[in-house]
Design goal:
By secondary structure, the chain is an alpha/beta fold. The chain has one domain: Alpha/Beta hydrolase fold, catalytic domain (Rossmann fold, 3-Layer(aba) Sandwich), CATH 3.40.50.1820. It contains eight helices and ten strands. A hairpin with a 5-residue loop joins strand 1 and strand 2. It is globular, with a radius of gyration of 17 Å. The relative contact order is 0.14. The model has no long low-confidence stretch (mean pLDDT about 95).
Amino acid sequence: MTTGTVRFLNLPNGKRIAYHKTEGTGPGVLFFGGFKSDMTGTKAVKLEQWCQTHQRAFTRFDYSGHGQSSGRFETGTIGEWLDDALSVIDELTKGPQIIVGSSMGGWLSLLATIARPQRVHALITLACATDFTRRLLIPTFSDVQKQQLTSEGCVLIPCDYDDQQPYPITRQLIEEGDNHLLLDKPIPIHCPVRMFHGMRDPDVPWDFSRRTCEQLESKDATLTLIKQGDHRLSEPADLRLLLNCLEQL
């Protein structure tokens, strides 16, 4: 599911960030994808189609080591992917943006909003995985996996969304992620925030979004729990909720 021709943002460090961009009015819409996902997913393309219909500026992109961008997934970190996202904001967008962040992209969208508060008009998160490296991955590892992570620096975990192929979790990802943890203190975000989470999410418990919402300093923040919702929130009813929210913002 793609529209248009992929383009590349060439960064001074030699990285090439793949992206699609639709010109239009502001505030623009910017989509942050999830962990080991890419910009061709249902939500990203649906948002793009909505923005094209409404002549709204829209950008979607792949983090380093994801999709069509350069780099290796195995060497990626939260900080590197945040830098990618900030480069996209700085180089590819103009004026205020509504950031839509899915799963890990929800965490990254929070971090990006803190880093560029004047550039974010509002924030929408879907199955927000705030602090997932420390609070979600580590507690699910067995003693054997923890030992392997320490001794070998990497552990393979199953992935239900990638043709059943396991993917690597590195010690570097976990340790570097600790530099970006948010849930132990108030989150200094003051723009409108709309959070959505499926109560049948098997990957990221909905309590992650609840805790995130509680920590936000914004006075205009809401959390919507979707009783039948899964992790992806890509069903037609889920997409209608997302697009209705976007239109209201």
